[in-house]
Amino acid sequence: MIYGPEHKEFMSSLSKFIAQEINPHVDQWEEDGIFPAHELFKKMGDKGFLGVCKPEAFGGMGLDYTYSLAMAETLGEINCGGVPMAIGVQTDMATPALARFGSDYVRENFLRPAIAGDYVACIGVSEPGAGSDVAGIKSYARVDGDDYIINGQKMWITNGTQADFMCMLVNTNDGPIHISKSLIIVPMDTPGITVARKLDKMGMRSSDTAQLFFEDVRVPRKNLIGEEGKGFIYQMKQFQEERLWAAGSGLKSLDITIDETIEYTRQRQAFGKPLLDNQVIHFRLAELKTEVECLRSITYRAVADYVKGQDVTMLASMAKLKVGRLKREVSDACLQYFGGMGFMNETPVSRAYRDGRLASIGGGADEVMLGIICKYMDTLPAQQRG
């Protein structure tokens, strides 16, 4: 069992916070197309929720990654996908490399306020021509004395209109693609940064997403994370936590969608009996519940191995692939069983249908996950291939 009494106490505390401070406002935030990130993150920072696995020296709790999984899974209780995704960007996408490889200077000036909820963070990897193909990014930072001067653009940036800083992946030399990139902390109030537009999305409506332009943006070289030229490596490591988080955050939300469908089909009468009495529906929901438990098992195993310091690239990729596929499969099946009501925006399953579609695209598309899994299959010792 991956969770002990301390995990469960932590999850209970977060559940209460969600019930009191988030879910009562979700419908309004969805309608507005944005949630007040600074206000919410400050409340979360005051409770210690934004630095669970971060160093105690910079305000974190210093716990292992099983607590981050516990947080991700509990965030599935939020009645939308956009808010938990934005929180996950803050805790498990924009700050892991900063916490692990950043100098004391950048950690003091950016990690500490992110943990406290005083700063909102975003991660700047994707570009119009480089989404899952991280190696294809074109943004460039050239050295000018003690500064970098950055030019380029970033696309599909979660928290992009509200962020105080970006953990930005850029090219810093013209060498081979895997050693030409660096991660740099870019304050978002720096001259030359333009929010080109707030993107209008099919789902994740309450999460602001932006296209950003960078024109001669001057940033101190001391804002570099770790070593120059190692940004691609750092980002790949950062992706592991992002993908584990994505899998964990889907578990409870998938359970909720199935459970709400069970309750609806138990009450909804058709042809003189509850819909749930139709074996095709009852069996299908049982099958989907089983699939979620399989996802839970692989996710827990991956996190347990990750905490032990093992390479979980293949398991994390499998979990990420599976959560994306299941979010599509579960929401589609459950919406069908809601019938006409499932097609109404007022019904939670329709929001799950819209929000869940991103899971197979963001953080590495399904096809990229399959490619990673294939590479690891090809390198397995012969006795492990079966």
TrEMBL record:
<dbReference type="InterPro" id="IPR037069">
    <property type="entry name" value="AcylCoA_DH/ox_N_sf"/>
</dbReference>
<feature type="domain" description="Acyl-CoA dehydrogenase/oxidase N-terminal">
    <location>
        <begin position="5"/>
        <end position="118"/>
    </location>
</feature>
<dbReference type="Pfam" id="PF02771">
    <property type="entry name" value="Acyl-CoA_dh_N"/>
</dbReference>
<dbReference type="InterPro" id="IPR050741">
    <property type="entry name" value="Acyl-CoA_dehydrogenase"/>
</dbReference>
<dbReference type="InterPro" id="IPR046373">
    <property type="entry name" value="Acyl-CoA_Oxase/DH_mid-dom_sf"/>
</dbReference>
<dbReference type="Pfam" id="PF02770">
    <property type="entry name" value="Acyl-CoA_dh_M"/>
</dbReference>
<keyword id="KW-0560">Oxidoreductase</keyword>
<protein>
    <submittedName>
        <fullName>Citronellyl-CoA dehydrogenase</fullName>
    </submittedName>
</protein>
<feature type="domain" description="Acyl-CoA oxidase/dehydrogenase middle">
    <location>
        <begin position="122"/>
        <end position="217"/>
    </location>
</feature>
<comment type="similarity">
    <text>Belongs to the acyl-CoA dehydrogenase family.</text>
</comment>
<keyword id="KW-0274">FAD</keyword>
<feature type="domain" description="Acyl-CoA dehydrogenase/oxidase C-terminal">
    <location>
        <begin position="229"/>
        <end position="375"/>
    </location>
</feature>
<dbReference type="InterPro" id="IPR009075">
    <property type="entry name" value="AcylCo_DH/oxidase_C"/>
</dbReference>
<dbReference type="InterPro" id="IPR036250">
    <property type="entry name" value="AcylCo_DH-like_C"/>
</dbReference>
<dbReference type="InterPro" id="IPR006091">
    <property type="entry name" value="Acyl-CoA_Oxase/DH_mid-dom"/>
</dbReference>
<dbReference type="InterPro" id="IPR009100">
    <property type="entry name" value="AcylCoA_DH/oxidase_NM_dom_sf"/>
</dbReference>
<dbReference type="InterPro" id="IPR013786">
    <property type="entry name" value="AcylCoA_DH/ox_N"/>
</dbReference>
<keyword id="KW-0285">Flavoprotein</keyword>
<dbReference type="Pfam" id="PF00441">
    <property type="entry name" value="Acyl-CoA_dh_1"/>
</dbReference>
<dbReference type="InterPro" id="IPR006089">
    <property type="entry name" value="Acyl-CoA_DH_CS"/>
</dbReference>
